[in-house]
């Protein structure tokens, strides 16, 4: 006679209990931010400075993330980092190429039994103006000579026009209107005759 085999399965129940670390109350704060210049020329830098206001335990040595976004755009991007001083002050330089908004972000940080809450400053705006440069190959010429005027625009504006003008009385007249190349520059030849004897005022306008 064949007896049916029996399979016995034993189960055990293990109960795990966990206790979260006990931290003290969270510490909030506020931060201010101001640009050293409300308006700069492309290629220049601006200093973003501010003050973190919170309890002593969360004020000094807090890591800072400086973020930027173009005016009218939704996304912020980190462009610089720093650390607050013992009194909560901070300053980070930046050289934006376009009109932009900045903000300072202090991420949440645990210090001993204290939780320093995330702090985000209000935005600070800096307007960036285009930088237009123009130079002549020679500043002193003879009648009939044709020096080269070289102009450039920053931020780059390849494919756009730039006006080379000469002052006539209280008005400015277009001499040439070249198109900026891939490097955002343009060079033109300007010829001056006997009627230009004396000083000639020139400018480049974008």
Question: Descriptors for this entry?
Answer:
six-stranded mixed β-sheet; mainly beta; disordered N terminus; 206 residues
Helix-strand layout with pairing:
Layout: E1 26-27, E2 29-35, E3 39-41, E4 46-54, E5 63-70, E6 77-83, E7 89-94, E8 100-106, E9 109-111, E10 114-116, E11 119-120, E12 124-129, E13 131-136, E14 148-154, E15 163-168, E16 171-176, E17 185-189, E18 202-205
Parallel strand pairs: 1-10, 3-12
Antiparallel strand pairs: 2-4, 4-7, 5-6, 5-8, 8-11, 8-12, 9-10, 13-14, 14-17, 15-16, 15-18
Brief overview:
By secondary structure, the chain is an all-beta fold. It is built from no helices and 18 strands. It has strands spanning 26-27, 29-35, 39-41, 46-54, 63-70, 77-83, 89-94, 100-106, 109-111, 114-116, 119-120, 124-129, 131-136, 148-154, 163-168, 171-176, 185-189, 202-205.
